[in-house]
From TrEMBL, chain A:
UniProt protein name: AP complex subunit sigma
PROSITE patterns from the UniProt entry: CLAT_ADAPTOR_S (PS00989)
Organism: Sparus aurata (Gilthead sea bream)
Origin organism lineage: Eukaryota, Metazoa, Chordata, Craniata, Vertebrata
A Pfam family reported for this protein in Swiss-Prot or TrEMBL: Clat_adaptor_s
BP-aspect Gene Ontology terms: intracellular protein transport
Function description: Subunit of clathrin-associated adaptor protein complex 1 that plays a role in protein sorting in the late-Golgi/trans-Golgi network (TGN) and/or endosomes. The AP complexes mediate both the recruitment of clathrin to membranes and the recognition of sorting signals within the cytosolic tails of transmembrane cargo molecules.
Gene Ontology CC annotations of this record: AP-1 adaptor complex; clathrin-coated pit
AP complex mu/sigma subunit domain mapped to chain residues: 1-140
From TrEMBL, chain B:
Chain segments annotated as transmembrane: none
Record organism: Sparus aurata
Name of the protein: AP-3 complex subunit delta-1
Family matches, as InterPro entries: AP3_complex_dsu, AP3D_dom_metazoa, ARM-like, ARM-type_fold, Clathrin/coatomer_adapt-like_N, Mu_AP3
Record domain AP-3 complex subunit delta: where: 666-800
Length: 157, 1071
């Protein structure tokens, strides 16, 4: 997979993950072009399109479009599966996820994605394992934060 | 110090965190940019603080802003700072920011090497994990080289969580630092048998990706993968393994045989569509186009797996209600089609069904498939279906796509599949009824191609084209349909070139000379004119055979009557051809009046057949000595340095297959620059003639086209031309024909069998007819190798003829200029005779022996009381004329301007002498006080004939019409409306009866002779405007119904208006 984009129906980018090194300008150009192309498609159309020399696989969940770019030899259906898996993961983590969850916790959405995909390849096919890893990392973060807070607070007083 | 900490944490309480930022942005929708720039200022302040928590918060916000498209590269160093925090919370944010913002050219990456190494070896697996994840996004060749060993060690980490990530990231490392592959490979191979399924799948993933780039090195792993494939139940892993085998099998044919069983099992048993699709796709398709050119080897695999199995499975996909499966099924089908056309063709029904799908991308896929599926047998049926779709199709893009596909399908490989060209011609004719298509040109070129190459079809084609020409108004009626009028180009040419096949050439000639033709684009008119001449030749030939010679003369008269319209065309090509042919016909008419038979000679003009030129004809042209076609004209630009930057190909042959040549932006810019420069140059070059506007634009679009609202006519009635054939009937006919043929064949076969009774007699009995059995009804002349010698000769002849004609024309041109330059009033002078045999309605030629004088009265815009009269003097006698003096008897109202010092009755000396047969122009200025009335001025011209040395005198009258005081002034419709609303204008109207000319001609005439411009035209109603030299506004509303033209006019000077209207009336009474 070359990159994954999440954007809203209004064309606002919500998440982007690039697995190929590109400069910002190029990224912006691609994003703009793709968002336009995908949004222009009618709801009943299939999820695949050919774009430049890549294949684009996208799917709409509520108001969010999940859009992946894969190479010619890659499997479109498994990419759809990846998108779906990621949505399921978000759903499990946030508890019936909505667009606002991703907007306000965009770093969490990234962390989940990073546990699920690495370098554009699925690294963990088991949902349970991904969530477990995320939960543990979060736990680590929270207890450290608390420790930190308690360290800071007394000096305030 | 303590104070600083306290201050820092108090500030922190007022800092925005990420949520505040997001909320803030959402609340400042109107001035988002402004809000964000204040936020960025705050973030810059926060980054300056020592508190790492504050910094992390700021970096987190920056990551969000980066996604919104803001440049945050300036904060790269701060990101590194946060990455190196010892606390996981901040480290995590730092790495996330780095993975989002860093790329290969970020220079601070160099600083991170040691930090990343430290994190990789951290006792906390999540520290390691976060470092690996981040690294996967921003790994550079340097990082890859420095960290390869550390990552390799992690591949044998105790925790599968780390092993899995380490294995996956190795792929990225290999890409950036290929040398690491060799030492790491044994360990990678080991991981294929890792107890943890996640690690195993990661290893399969990496090896599969590597093998796709260079399969040869991974053949030794085949047994291992084979074991995995038969034992694994994880579809993700299976898909990768199948992909891997797809890459390996072409190199090792024996593998193919071994794979048949497990693959067939998988295809039959799996419920996962993704896996099924992968099987079909990889095995049948990728194998057929292997990365290495060893096609013959790869055949082993798919030969032993029946393609029917695959196609059947694909059928299931296509029949599925899910759009995605349908699309992929069609996609895979089109790939199989290349190798197994037969097995796909049997599913034609299904593919045709897909044309009804609501998803356009599916319909387009199905169309692609159909292109490859047609055969002689099913072409008609498929095209018939497509034609139905054309009728139903919504949206012009899809309809245009259908149209091009129909033509592609029919014309592919030299019309290989067309058995009946009559059918094809009717299809093309039916396609012309498409509204708003852009592909008129395509249809036209097909018509031409078929008519030229298929001799047997010409008679039919000509008949069809004649009908098209006759019904041309249906094609051109609507402005939207302008694209389709290209077809008339082909129609006119075919009718002209093959006019001997025409049943009623006279009628077609008539149709081609209709005044309406003048609204067509210039290049089409040009073809009309040229081919009208060809038709004329044919008609003459048929008419001269008859006893009645008047018919032939009438035909010439028709040409002479109609051609002047084209002579007036603004398109040079049309004008040139028309005036050339007009003169020719006039000459012919003269001969006819003397009862000379001319038909033979006229048709000799167009004798000879145009033959297509063979594609390889160029080869026959010898290369001139000293010309090296391979040498560069300009030195090629030096190769870009990007080549040097390419990584060394350790993965061998980085397939260039998918890298389409990308257009470089620089080139675009450069081109634009050059274009601009060229435009400048052309603008400054007085000899450069800019593209001439098409003829119809001349008056319709002259002033302020953009202000003319284009009314779109809604045509709900299907545009069926009566009398045109329906292609459908051919399908039936064709079937009957084939049946007959089949029956005949059967008879023959029976005979044969009777003769050979002793034979086995097990012959397949008249089963489905094979491709070869279908004999085409018409043969295409397919020119391949030889260029017919004849054709070149004929061409030359023709060219020569054209040249001659051109020369003739040039000579004639002189006269035409006269036509164009005159325009004022008209006056006949005593003892004058009209010189031109073809009287233009408002001709101003007045001539007398020995002098001809032509004059043009032009108002002077700068001075409201001045009128310039230019007079052309032409000496028609044989003697030299000198000392010419021009004098006019002044009236109260108009005075000739004389040089100071001369008396009011002195004449003006004409500043030149006239040798015999020469003409020259002199200008005289008159002062006019009132312009509301026309007037006539009497004048005399005195001159001395050199030989006789006597004074001669000529009397003449100058007619100053009110029209000549009008100056063509463009007016926009909104300004025009205001003018009418103002109420200052007086009204008057006039009716013209029995005007029999098309509306646009009428308008053109008013524009031309009376100096008006069209403001707006709607249907048969137009508003026009002009201005007098003294600033009177004259507005006209011209309406036409039947043969009655009513002109309602408004002007602030009623007398002027009345006179102008009288003059207009007079103009039309003369025609």
């Amino acid at each position: 997979m070359q990159f994954m984009l999440l954007f809203s129906r209004q064309g606002k980018l919500r998440l982007q993950k690039w697995y190929v090194p590109l400069c910002d300008k190029e990224k912006k150009k691609i994003t703009r072009e793709l968002v336009q192309t995908v949004l222009a498609r009618k709801p009943k159309m299939c999820s695949f399109l050919e774009w430049r020399d890549l294949k684009i696989v996208y799917k709409r969940y509520a108001s969010l479009y999940f859009c992946c770019a894969i190479e010619d030899q890659d499997n479109e259906l498994i990419t759809l599966e990846i998108i779906h898996r990621y949505v399921e993961l978000l759903d499990k983590y946030f508890g019936s996820v909505c667009e606002l969850d991703i907007i306000f916790n965009f770093e969490k959405a990234y962390f989940i994605l990073d546990e699920f995909l690495l370098g554009g390849e699925a690294q963990e096919t088991s949902k349970k394992n991904v969530l477990k890893a995320i939960e543990q990392a979060d736990l680590l973060q929270e207890c450290k934060t608390e420790k930190h807070e308690s360290f800071v607070n007394p000096s305030c007083i | 110090m303590a104070l600083k900490i306290v201050k820092g944490s108090i500030d922190r309480m007022f800092d925005k965190n990420l949520q505040d930022l997001v909320r803030g942005i959402r609340n400042h929708k109107e001035d988002e940019a402004k809000y964000i720039s204040t936020c960025i200022d705050e973030i810059k302040q926060e980054l300056k603080q020592d508190n790492i928590a504050v910094k992390a918060n700021a970096v987190c916000k920056l990551t969000y802003l980066q996604m919104l498209g803001y440049d945050v590269s300036w904060a790269a160093f701060n990101i590194v700072e946060v990455m190196s925090s010892s606390k996981f919370t901040y480290k995590r944010i730092g790495y996330l920011a780095a993975s989002q913002c860093f790329h290969e050219s970020t220079d601070v990456i160099m600083l991170t090497t040691n930090q990343i190494r430290k994190d990789l070896s951290s006792p906390n697996q999540y520290d390691t994990g976060v470092a690996l994840t981040g690294l996967s996004c921003f790994v550079t060749p340097d990082l890859a080289r420095d960290l390869a060993n550390d990552i390799m060690t992690l591949m044998s980490h105790t925790k599968p969580y780390i092993r899995k990530k380490a294995v996956l990231i190795m792929y990225k490392v290999f890409l950036k630092y290929p040398e690491s592959l060799r030492p790491a490979f044994p360990r990678l191979k080991e991981k294929l048998e890792d107890p943890d399924p996640g690690v195993q799948s990661a290893a399969v993933n990496v090896i599969c990706e590597l093998a796709r780039r260079n399969p040869k090195n991974y053949l030794s792993l085949a047994p291992l993968f084979f074991k995995l494939m038969t034992s694994s139940t994880n579809n993700w892993v299976l898909i990768k393994i199948i992909k891997l085998f797809g890459a390996l099998t072409p190199l090792e044919p024996r593998l193919g045989k071994k794979l048949i069983e497990p693959l067939t099992n998988l295809i039959h048993s799996t419920s996962a569509m993704s896996l099924l699709y992968e099987c079909v796709n990889t095995v049948y398709i990728d194998v057929n186009t292997p990365p290495l050119p060893s096609l013959s080897l790869s055949l082993c695999l798919y030969l032993s797996l029946p393609p029917q199995l695959c196609v059947q499975k694909l059928r299931i996909l296509i029949e599925d209600s899910d759009q995605n499966l349908k699309y992929l099924g069609l996609l895979a089908m089109s790939k199989i089609l290349k190798t197994h056309p037969k097995s796909v063709q049997s599913h034609k029904d299904l593919i045709l069904q897909c044309l009804d799908d609501k998803d356009e991308s599916i319909r387009l896929r199905a169309l692609d498939l159909l292109y490859g599926m047609v055969s002689k047998k099913n072409l008609m049926e498929i095209v018939k279906k497509l034609m139905l779709h054309v009728d139903k199709a919504e949206g012009t893009t899809y309809r245009d796509e259908l149209l091009t596909k129909i033509i592609d399908i029919c014309s592919q490989s030299n019309y290989q599949y067309i058995t009946n060209f009559e059918w094809y011609i009717s299809i093309l004719v039916e396609l012309t009824r498409l509204e708003g298509t852009r592909h008129g040109h395509l249809i036209a070129s097909q018509m031409l191609d078929v008519a030229i190459r298929v001799k047997a079809i010409r008679g039919f084609a000509v008949a069809q084209m004649a009908t098209l020409l006759d019904n041309a108004h249906l094609l051109t009626g609507n402005m939207q349909r302008m694209g389709i009028c290209e077809v008339l180009y082909a129609a006119a040419w075919i009718c002209g070139e093959f006019s001997e096949h025409l049943e009623n050439p006279m009628q077609t000639l008539e149709a081609m000379l209709r005044p309406k033709v003048a609204t067509l684009p210039g290049h089409i008119q040009a073809v009309y004119v040229q081919n009208a001449a060809k038709l004329f030749a044919t008609v003459l030939k048929s008419q001269e055979g008859n006893t009645d010679s008047t018919a032939a003369q009438e035909t010439s008269q028709l040409m002479i009557d109609r051609l002047p319209l084209f002579v007036q065309s603004a398109n040079l090509e049309v004008q040139e051809r028309a005036s050339c042919i007009l003169q020719l016909v006039k000459y012919i008419q003269k001969l006819q009046q003397k009862d000379v038979e001319v038909a033979e000679e006229v048709s000799a003009l167009f004798a000879g057949e145009l033959n297509p030129v063979a594609p390889k004809a160029q080869k026959k042209v010898p290369v001139p000595e000293g010309l090296d076609l391979d040498s560069w004209i300009n030195e090629p630009p030096s190769e870009s340095e990007s080549e040097d930057e390419q990584p060394k190909a350790i993965f061998a042959k980085e397939e260039p297959k998918h890298s389409r040549p990308r257009r470089e932006e620089v080139d675009e810019k450069e081109l634009a620059k050059r274009r601009e420069a060229r435009k400048q140059e052309q603008a400054n070059n007085p000899f450069y003639i800019k593209a001439s506007p098409s003829s119809q634009k001349v008056y319709q679009e002259a002033p302020g086209v953009e202000h003319i609202p284009v009314v779109q006519i809604d045509l709900s009635v299907p545009l069926k031309v009566p009398g045109l054939p329906m292609s459908d009937q051919y399908v039936k006919l064709e079937e009957e024909r084939r049946q007959k043929e089949r029956a005949e064949k059967k008879k023959k076969e029976k005979k044969k069998r009777k003769e050979k009774r002793s034979g086995r007699g097990k012959k397949h009995d008249s089963g489905p007819e094979s491709e070869e059995d279908i004999t085409p009804a018409h043969q295409v002349d397919i020119v391949t190798e030889e260029m017919p010698e004849k054709s070149s000769k004929h061409k030359k002849k023709k060219q020569k003829k054209e040249k001659e004609e051109k020369e003739k024309k040039k000579k004639k041109k002189h006269h035409h200029h006269h036509h164009h330059s005159d325009g004022g009033g008209e006056e006949a002078v005593q003892n004058g005779t009209v010189e031109e045999e073809e009287p233009l309605p408002v001709s101003v030629f007045f001539c007398f022996l020995p002098l001809t004088k032509v004059y043009d009265i032009q108002g002077n815009l700068q001075d409201g009381s001045q009128v310039v009269v230019s007079v052309i003097f032409e000496n028609k006698c044989d003697s030299f004329l000198k000392s010419m003096e021009f004098n006019v008897l002044d009236s109260l109202n108009s005075k000739l301007q004389r040089p100071e010092g001369s008396g009011p009755h002195d004449g003006l000396t004409v500043p030149f002498q006239l040798p015999p047969g020469v003409s020259n122009e002199a200008r005289f200025v008159f002062t006019v006080q009132s312009i509301i009335m026309p007037q006539k001025l009497k004048g005399t011209l005195t001159f001395i004939v050199k030989d006789s040395s006597t004074h001669e005198k000529l009397d003449f009258k100058l007619h100053f019409t009110c029209t000549s005081y009008l100056i063509t002034t463009p007016c926009y419709s909104d300004a025009f409306a205001k003018l009418l609303e103002s109420g200052d204008l007086k009204c008057s109207s006039v009716r013209l009866e029995g005007v029999n000319m098309p509306f646009h001609h009428l308008l053109a005439r008013i524009c031309f002779h009376h100096h008006f411009s069209v403001v707006e035209r709607i249907d048969s109603c137009a508003s026009m405007y002009s201005r007098s030299i003294q600033g009177h506004h004259v507005c006209l509303l011209v309406k036409v119904s039947a043969q009655t033209v009513s002109i309602d006019a408004k002007c602030d000077e009623p007398t002027l208006l009345g006179n102008v209207l009288d003059e207009i009336k007079q103009t039309f009474s003369q025609c």
